[in-house]
Predict the structure.
Amino acid sequence: MTAPGRRSSTFTRLLRHGFTDPSCAERLLESAELAPIKADPVLLDALGATADPDLALLGLVRLVEAQEGPAARRELLDTLIAAKPLRDRLLGVLGASAALGDHLARHPRDWQELVTYEPQDLHPGVEEFERGLAPATDPVSLRVLYRRCLLSIAARDVCGTTDLAQTAAELADLATATLRAALAIAQAAAPDDAALCRLAVVAMGKCGGHELNYVSDVDVIFVGEAVEGADEGKALQAAGRLASHLMRICSETTVEGSIWPVDANLRPEGRNGPLVRTLSSHLAYYQRWAKTWEFQALLKARPVAGDLKLGEEYVATLAPLVWHAAERANFVPDVQRMRRRVVENIPVAEVERELKLGPGGLRDVEFAVQLLQLVHGRADTSLRSGTTLDALRALAAGGYVGRADAVQLDEAYRFLRSMEHRIQLYRLRRTHLVPEEDADLRRIGRSLGLRADPVVELNREWKRHAAVVRRLHEKLFYRPLLDAVAQLAPGETRLSADAARERLVALGYADPAAALRHLEALASGVSRKAAIQRTLLPVLLGWFADSADPDAGLLNFRKVSDALGKTPWYLRLLRDEGAAAENLARVLSAGRLAPDLLMRAPEAVALLGDGDGDGGRGGLEPRSRAHLEQEILAAVGRADGGEQAVTAARGVRRRELFRTAAMDIVASYGTEENPAVADQGALVDLVGGAVSDLTAATLAGTLRAVVRWGSPHASEGEGRGGWGDTLPTRFAVIGMGRFGGHELGYGSDADVLFVHEPRDGVDEQEASLAANAVVSEMRRLLQIPSADPPLLIDADLRPEGKSGPLVRTLRSYEAYYRRWSLVWEAQALLRAEVVAGDEDLGRRFIELIDPLRYPAEGLGDDAVREIRRLKARMESERMPRGADPTLHSKLGRGGLSDVEWTVQLMQLRHGWAEPGLRTTRTRAALAAACAAGLLAGEDAAVLDEAWVLATRVRNAVMLVRGRAGDTFPSDGRELAAVGRYLGYGPGHVGDMLDDYRRITRRARALVDELFYGA
């Protein structure tokens, strides 16, 4: 007897053998059922070898209890101790599957199925399983016999007698035999229907691919024909009844549970289409209506039951269509879109635990292999296997995939599928979620041979293999292309030139010949540069292919590499800084503006590194206006003349425009580490603020340069030779329009007013000549043709417009506004803000115009009517001829003009009383109007959404086309690139335009109400 407080030796041994509840296990071992064998050491050793010793022991006790009489119990226990194969199989199953333990408790003689250990028993096929199911006469008996056969498959699996591929094949063979037995039962129940028709059952999915799970839907397609002399319509009705009965036999729950659902939704038209079609009807559908994914599904089509000859005819008839699917328009985007849709439909809380459908999951391998089969299988029949691992092996043998990469993916796929099998086997439930409880993870880990620390080891191996799968596009699609052009390993099977071109076309490259030339130029040779680029390119090519213009991405990368390839830091940056390579790929393939800016000074690629910024944007975080102004003024101070000074300022502007554009692209596209920015309004504010600050700093630097060096084209009295540090007149630049509102886009002009005030003792004419000379020279210097983009200064919002003087004194402005000001000028002044020059003069100008733009007691009725008249006139006269008013981002329905005029009318009417409305920024004024109760929060959100979207459309057009525009591009590839920037995947351009129309239509309805008073 064990002393109180001390553990028994049995307790200690149980712990050592892997039991987690030794107290319970000790009680079970002491039970009467196990009395004859409890002292035998082989029992404890065998239990300790199972996935879950506690579960195995409990299942064994239940099985012994269920035996009918002492003789049956003695037979079981004697065989268990004497026969190691039975012991390993039976306890292995009981330790891995609670569901099969329940089955054995209900059917206690079925353990004898595990006794036989003959060679033919090790790898049964369809015939053996058909014999095992032959006695079934109804759904209940079929379920019992099915589980009995499943018991032997699971026993071979958990004992390692069969590997993953063999187990999956056996499960598919058992499914085949089950479908045949179910059809036989259905035919026996309706002999008249059976006599009228020929019915073929074609397996699809994993059953068709001979790689089934323990618990999975069995996907099928039914093909029916009338027997000779029978009416086709009646025959198809009869075939439909038989097919429906077959599905019920397998799917319905009885006292013995269900087998698995039979899913016929892969048929033409899915669940909306007829359950059974003739072969000619199938062919007509696939020739005319089928989508890419339907041909992808047909890769695994395999006749399994019913009229096998008819099934073979079905497969042979449709095969030519399958192997030409890769030639269809949008083939790869279709496949990728389907994959993305699968991932998007996973609940967020489950994504990280989703073994099959999540990132780095089984479906990634299967989709990738199927994609390569469709691309290359037309010319190479050796690739036409429905089994994933066989197809992967064939792709490697043919040089379509690198051998080492294929081995890695084979290992990863086998491990992930084995995990999936063990998860499903436990309860025989259809699931692909990795459990969260340590006890479940421990059982799975031990079942896979991870015994030291099962939970930690399982998680580590799972993550390691998932990481391999996450990089599979690099390994499967792109690395073989590099091997094909580099040709560094003689004797290695590699892609032919034709196969490489086929693959590039399938991956979205419009000019595969040019792409191959670029790859060869980048990756050939034995230099360090070529070696590093061979490492980088497979990853970069995948990112290029994810864009709307992969060809441009690759061409631009070659240009940058040609310019910087001999610079030591460039390749080191891309190789070592995680963000740099992906950021570069996104920027180079997103449109023309950012690559053009980069090509003018390729060293700016250094900005794409990790940096020290926040929000995952690293070195792309826009710099403050003070920082920019300090750098530009310092550059101006070091220059030897005005043109050199402004060239330096424009160089800073070009670099910072690139920084902002790159940040915008990366934030809009997202990266592998950081998803796309969700708050698009905040991104619009960031871009508008960055470009506006940069423009202000550039103007400040240019003004300093002109004051210091003057104009070489002016006379002595007008500033030739410059004025040194002090201009004869105080001078300020007032930002107007989007510039004053901190809302400049990449292609915006700088709307400004110029104001000056003669210094004490300076003649007014002299001051005026100096001020006009400064303005003229600033405009000239900022537009001199050079490698840097020009900055156009637009002063048309000045008093009297183009007819008035470019620059006025403060007193002149005061006199004009007091006597002649029109309501549109007060509206324009709502956006006025000092951006450069004399701060005190600028402040006094703002004080001068405040009463004008925020009139006491608000606008009168006549002024409101005038603004409405001006807006209506602008809508009718300024819309470009032929433009679609529902898609014009500036002047169109619900676009920028609509929202801004509505907000500005509220500012003019209520700004005198509501301090929050006294802002130059549209979104801030909109928020202030909402806070003041001038419009409902829901209405403010509608207007804000439309304004942000229209602004992003304008930014997108400039980024994509490299020139400003207010409408969506007509070119398909450019339109797709705008869609990608706005967050729409391939093939969703129509959704983008529909969403734009819907959002702006709602905004226009509010404009009619709030602005026009409709």
The first strand starts at residue 197 and ends at 203. Residues 1-5, 612-617 have pLDDT under 50 and may be disordered. Residues 930 and 938 are 9 Å apart (CA to CA). The beta strands are 197-203, 218-226, 262-263, 276-277, 302-306, 729-735, 750-758, 793-794, 807-809, 833-837.
